[in-house]
Amino acid sequence: MSIDTLQRFLLDDLDIRGAVVRLGPVWQEITARRHYPAPANALLGEMCATALFIADALKHPGRITFQLRGDGPVSLLVVDCDERLNLRAMAHAVADTAPAPMPELLGGGQLLLSLDVPNMRQPWQSVVPMQGDNIAEVFEHYLGLSEQLPSRLFLAASPEGAAGLFLQKLPNADARDADGWNRITGLAATVTADELLALPADELLTRLFHEETVRVFDARKVLHDCPEDWDKVRTMLRSLGRQEVEAVLREHGEVLIRDDLANRDYRFDAAAVEALFSEAPPTLH
């Protein structure tokens, strides 16, 4: 298994399914030039791995967005992923945020979910109380409510990568082996952060479940494909009006539009602003 992939697996004899995610270059692109404090970076990386497990279940084109909002020094974590596993993410955090337990970092908050698919008139949204002492527990609680299937998450993140192991108990698991779920989750709980971040899926699963029959499926590639969209930004600036845009230009010497999720800046100098309002806007048909 290469890096920047999600790979599903099934414990055939136990009716337990799961997946392994390992991120490297994609994670580094997401965090490039952002300089998040280490505690926020770690939370965001763990949330990225978790969102991929959930987005992998999307059967039709669509985009799922998770937001953790609170009143602590890490006030916002957003992860956005579509059915192709095209991942975007961002955080808002106080620059000198010190290491602390997650509830202290986020403060009292909520988990917001938004699902946007082409045939829906508007995105479906849900708000879930944030319950748990870490990202894994928050999403285990969410999955228990939404899918009504016991789930476990084991997550890790560093400046170089993010990774996770996901397990879910299927309805017939107890009939197949009454102790199977407890045995497998106990074995999974021995995994270390270094193992999650470094080991390919097949090696990780063999190390953890060497006495079980594990069927591993083809890996899916994770993307960070966020092309520039200058037309969209120009249309937005035109909607603000020339007077307001030129006022920003006079104050700052340029007009800067920041796309946080895509980790991209759009800059307009005086010549670009003049061209923006001199050229005819595109005709809508």
UniProtKB/TrEMBL annotation:
Q: What are the GO BP annotations of this UniProt entry?
A: protein refolding
Q: Which GO terms describe its molecular function?
A: protein folding chaperone; unfolded protein binding
InterPro entries found in the cross-reference section: Heat_shock_Hsp33, Heat_shock_Hsp33_C, Heat_shock_Hsp33_N, Hsp33_helix_hairpin_bin_dom_sf
Q: What does the entry list under GO cellular component?
A: cytoplasm
User: Can the keyword Amino-acid biosynthesis be found in this entry's annotation?
Assistant: no
Q: Name one Pfam family in it.
A: HSP33
> Which keywords does this chain's UniProt record carry?
Chaperone, Cytoplasm, Disulfide bond, Redox-active center, Zinc
The entry's protein name is: Molecular chaperone Hsp33
Species in which this protein is naturally found: Rhodocyclus tenuis
